[in-house]
Every structure is written in structure tokens, then in C-alpha cells.
Amino acid sequence: MAGRRIEYIDIAKGILILCLLYGHMIIELNLHGVNDAVLHGMWKFVPVYNSFFMPCFFLITGFCSTFSVPFRKFLWKNVKTLLIPAVIITLIGQYGTDIFNCRKLSFNHFLELGGWLGNSGPWFILSLFIAKMIYRAVSGLKSWQKASIVAVFYFGGLVLDRFDFFPNYLWHRHAFILLPFLYIGDVLKTGLPKVEKYLKPAALAWLFLVPLQVVLHYRGICILPTLDKSILVTLDNFYLHFANVLLGAAMVFQVSRWLQTVCKSDILRTFGTGTLLIYLINEPQQRFVLRIMMPFYNPDFSILQSVIFQVSAHLLCFIIFYWLVKVVYDSRYLSKIVGKW
Fold first, then answer.
1. Do residues 255 and 206 touch, judged by C-beta distance below 8 A?
2. Cα–Cα distance for residue pair 213/50, rounded to 1 Å
3. Other C-beta atoms within 10 Å of 214: how many?
4. DSSP 234-281
5. What gap in Å lies between CA 180 and CA 32, rounded to an integer?
6. What span, in angstroms and rounded, lies between the C-alpha atoms of 90 and 228?
7. Contact 49/246 with Cβ under 8 angstroms?
8. Are 125 and 83 in contact (CB under 8 A)?
């Protein structure tokens, strides 16, 4: 598969980043004073995709990355395309929020970057960077050696999280626990054609397994294993974590392949292109949207009015990001500044 871009992978990234926007917008709506039955109903859907969508990004990254380049070149490429854009876009988001809120600009944002690196920054970027460095270091080993080391890191991350005897600096626990999905993505480079024929039955299995777990989760019978900013994967449920991620990835890939055949899916491909930019600046942008919309919100809205209001907030956010990604990534200079994963 090397050298050939697979369109439905970009569509899959677009679907996954829309999931992130959906969940973050619900959080922002709540922080801005929306706390009605509609919001709680929309929140109940989050665990359905939260069981797999962030690890799926690691899987796709492993599939799309090249680990055979010299280590120094690999290190600099990822600093340039992940860490530097993360710092730049974070600062833009912070200063943009200050300007919009009519606050005095402060040098403190630069000083806060030290804390940003200490378990308070965008966890995905830092953990992805660490995971990629670890995997590059072992990528030249034999398959069984590589798999063994990845497994040691995975269970090491679970142990570190369980006993909590070392702070989660740089989100290293996340990096260790998500490392196997980077590995699986790398393996898929040569095995994807064989795997594609199993996508449909795996997607059907996901439709049964995950909703059942969500129901049991809400009834307090079991804990749905998820990994985002918090870690709900343990030594007791890690096997479900793997099953949910692999079946969930199969479901997203199957839907993406179907969309590719029935429509152009340009919108989802655009979102898939700008996942790094969207991830890093989505919260300031959503706050901007809600600052505009909240004067029109009434706590006494009917269910229909609340649905219209909240869906409108999501759609306005999607529209702004669609055009932001188009403008930024169509520019040769801006696209270099914001990076890409």
C-alpha cells in the first residue's frame, strides 16, 4: 500500500474529528449555562464513540507514518509537524480568547507553557509524539521483539495508572497505553487488503458489543473502558478496550468506504486533512461561537427549541472549521506553520 493515498482513511479521520467536536461542544455548552434534558440526552451518546475514537487516531497515524527514516530526521520531522504547531496554535488560541474577551494581553501565556508540558497541555499531541519516538526506536527489531516491547510498555502504562506512583508528566501513561495501536496501524500497511474483507462483519459486531456495554455502563454493572484525557482502561478490562477499538475502527473504515462510493465526501475529507489544526484550536473556537449564540438562549426553551439551538451551535462550529481548514491548508505558508498529522 506504500505510496498510494487511500481516500477513505482521510474520510475516517474526518468522522473521528467530528466526534471530538461533538463531545467538546457539549462540554462547552454546559460550561456556558446549558443544562437541560436535551444536553443530557446528547451527552449519553458520547460513550458510544468514546470507546474507540482517540486510539483509532493512533492506529491511523501508525498506518500513515514512515518509521524507516533515520532517527534524527524522524525526530525533527515530528517536532516540526507536531510540537511546534501545538505551541504556536495554543498561543494563538489563548491570545485570541483574550482579545475577544477584551482582556489585556499578557506575557504569562509564554510562561504557562512550562505547565502546558506538565500534564495540562493537549494530551493527544504529547502522547502521540512520545509513542512515535518509542516505536521508531524499536521499529527495526524483529516482529516478535517489537510486539514484546510494545506489550511491556502497554501493561507498564496500566500499572503506572493503577498505582499512581509517578506523575503523568508529558502524558507518558497515555503514550504507553496507546502504543499498541500505533503498532497495529504500522502492521496494517502490508495487511490492509486482507483485512478489508473482514471490515463489514467486524462493524456489525461493534454495533452489538459497544451499545450493550454502554447500557451496562449507565446501569452501573460495568465500566466502559475508554481513554481520552482520563484513563478508564484497567488490568481488568483491557481486553474489552482492544476489542472496542479494533471493532470501532473497522466500523469507521467500513462507513468511510461506503461514503466514498456513494458520494464525494469532500467535506469529511477536508476535516480529515485539518485534524491537527481542529484538535488544537477547537475549544477557543467553540467558545467564540457560544459567546455569539448564548444571548439567544433561554433556559425555558421547549425541547424542540433547545434541540434547534444546540444543533445550530454544532453546525456553526462545523461550518467555521470547514472554511478555516480550507483557507489554512490551501496556503503554502500557513499549512507549514500549523503542521499536520
1. no
2. 12
3. 18
4. -TTTHHHHHHHHHHHHHHHHHHHHHHHHHS--HHHHHHHHTHHHHHHH
5. 38
6. 19
7. no
8. yes
What residues does 231 pair with on adjacent strands? 227
Which grid cell is 154?
502497554
Q: What is the average pLDDT across 204-216?
A: 92
What pLDDT score was predicted for residue 1? 46
Most distant CA atoms of the chain, gap in Å: 63
What is the Cα–Cα distance from 47 to 320, expressed in whole angstroms? Answer: 26
Residue 93: pLDDT over 70: no
Residue 76 sits at the vertex; the CA angle it makes with 74 and 78, to the nearest 5 degrees, is 70
Beta bridge partners of residue 227, listed in sequence order: 231
What's the Cα-to-Cα distance from 127 to each of 130, 132, 172, 178, rounded to whole Å? Answer: 5, 9, 6, 8
* Domain spans in the chain, listed from the N-terminal domain onward: 7-338
- Lowest average pLDDT, out of 27-31, 88-92, 168-172, 208-212, goes to 88-92
Asked if 272 and 10 touch (Cβ cutoff 8 Å), the reply is yes
Task: Tell me the torsion sign for CA atoms 119, 125, 130, 135.
Answer: positive
Q: At which residue does the C-alpha cell 462507513 appear? A: 255
Q: How many CA atoms lie within 13 A of 123 on its CB side?
A: 19
pLDDT in tens, 295-324: 999 999 999 999 999 999 999 999 999 999
Residue 227 phi, psi (nearest 5): -140, 105
Q: Give the distance from CA 72 to its chain's centroid.
A: 26
pTM: 0.90
Q: Is 133 exposed, middle or buried (0-12, 13-18, 19+ CB in 10 A)?
A: middle
pLDDT, mean over the chain? 87
Nearest in space to 203 (alpha carbons), one of 156, 252, 236: 252
More confident of the two residues 6 and 137? 137
Q: What is the pLDDT of residues 113-156, one digit of tens each?
A: 555 555 456 889 989 999 999 999 999 899 999 999 999 999 99
95 pLDDT above the threshold of 60: no
Task: Count CA within 13 A, CB hemisphere, residue 128.
Answer: 27
* Integer Cα distance of 251 and 228 in angstroms: 19
